[in-house]
Design brief:
Helix content: 25-40%
CATH topology of the largest domain: Glutamine Phosphoribosylpyrophosphate, subunit 1, domain 1
Shape: globular
Bound molecules: glutamic acid
Number of domains: 3
CATH class of the largest domain: Alpha Beta
Distance between the termini: 10 Å
Radius of gyration: 25 Å
Number of strands: 25
Strand content: 15-25%
Strand order of the largest sheet: 3-2-4-1-10-9-11-15
Largest sheet: 8 strands, antiparallel
CATH architecture of the largest domain: 4-Layer Sandwich
Amino acid sequence: MCGIIGYVGGGNAAEIILGGLKRLEYRGYDSAGAAFLSDGKIQLIKKQGRVEKLAPLLKEIHSRTGIGHTRWATHGVPSDINAHPHCAGGIAVVHNGIIENYAELKAELISGGAKFVSDTDSEVVAHLLLKNYRGDLVFALRETVKLLKGSYALMAICESEQRIAVARHKSPLIIGYGADGNFCASDEPALAGLCNTITILEDGDIAEISEKSVKIFDRFFNPVTRNEEPNLAVSASLGLDGYPHYMLKELNETPLSVEATARAFEGVKERFREELAGVRRVILTGCGTAYHAALIGKRYIECFARIPAECETAGEFRYKNPVIDEHTAVFAVSQSGETADTVEAARLALSLGAKVIAVTNSHRSELTRIATVSVPVAAGPEICVAATKSYTGQIAALYLSAAVLAGEKFYADCAEKIRLIPNLLTLTLESLDMRSLAHVCASSSGVYFLGRDLDYAVALEGSLKLKEISYVAGEGYPSGELKHGTLALIDVNTTSVVIITDEELAGKSGNAVEQVLSRGGKVAVITSLEGVKEKFSGKLPLVVLPKCDKYLSPLLSAVAVQMLAYKAAAVLSREIDKPRNLAKSVTVE
Ligand code: GLU
């Protein structure tokens, strides 16, 4: 949520900030802005809307120091005024996070004579910096963060100093070392092509970034050295490669995601086995699509290893005083590894003595750093806000993790089975024709995704994906529950998509199809089963998937429902990669 970038050096700050903001835009895109130091004055440019709107305005800027922001509003509507940076006196600041005690701070500052112009929580930081400024911006930032509650990655500049002061607490922030100046940013992709080495700041760190030097201080303001690491983000891998949308490109990369994840798992398998020896209970947690992957992981762990497993969204888990001891393993699933609720859930689990297993696509994320052991998802950069290939990667990682817990021989068998999946995914992607069903869904008043057991978990994902990118309402529902409520919503204007990939449950799920048809609702079936094909062929739209092991079928049906959502959103001409009101990498709670 929100992307921030800063630069100080000998290059063209406006060009660098603009390029970085474009790469950060997936984190928020309701408004964007930047502040530059130019002839000892702050030049401020900010606009509601996309980063691109800044481009013509930034052409006029001649500066070597600047900070920029692309926003996902938490406090205050998207508008020019609420866009960052926020200024007070000769100081400008950009903020990613939420200042939870902003109302008290604002009231106090106003009573001291401060004039606020925006509705954001972030503006208090600008006024506090001004109040604490005694000729040293880094000192002012140190005094300011002492007063803040909540989460923040902050970057500030000031008219009388040629440097950037930064601080982080629970929001990501990295420093980049370039040949012609230094950088700070929310993530590595923002600095792709700009610098070869980076440092990931730790919670509580404050830093001073100048053209030729970087100084880092810990939360007690002691100078510290943090590791310098290679910047692994490569600009070339972030292009569309001829696809109309990142979502379609990323869907087509699901075979690679599963293959690379399975390969990467080999490297952590032994460590994972050692750490989890003696575990008696498993909890899986995550948010959104990652939570849907966790639901599938729960079933794997129970079915393969017969270890009791529970699954809870991270935002709920955190506040339930969970029963956890040292024999509990908590799988924290997050694409970015920075999802605030998931990271905090992991911290809570660790503090209660549990082992935490990070299942994440970002190997340098906060989640990876704090976890007992990390199971990599090797999906590669995912730009579209709606997750696709990271979800399939997460399922693959959880499948192999559960297999390890079930023993050596079981694992060998599963590793063999998952090797077949990339080809089956390619086959699925080549054969899927969702056009007519996508039109039907796009014109429906509601779309209900139904399934049982693993198919139900995929139904939840199908429904979420369709809502996220097409804005068509609906629900994911267990087929058996239909008659206990949702059936009341079924009429000729609704469509139900029933997923049936489990032979043993096919008959029961078939009943749901009949129940919807009897109420005049439209129905489509996604299946890999011969019997189901025969039963419904010619009677309703069928999406046929390749035959596949029952436990791995979610990988194929996930691609089917995600492709359906993509095509429906395309029919409705939605802005698929950047759906309204959303952003990737949810770093606020
Ligand atoms: N709370 C700030 C705002 O609404 C920053 C939002 C964020 O980082 O997501 O402007």
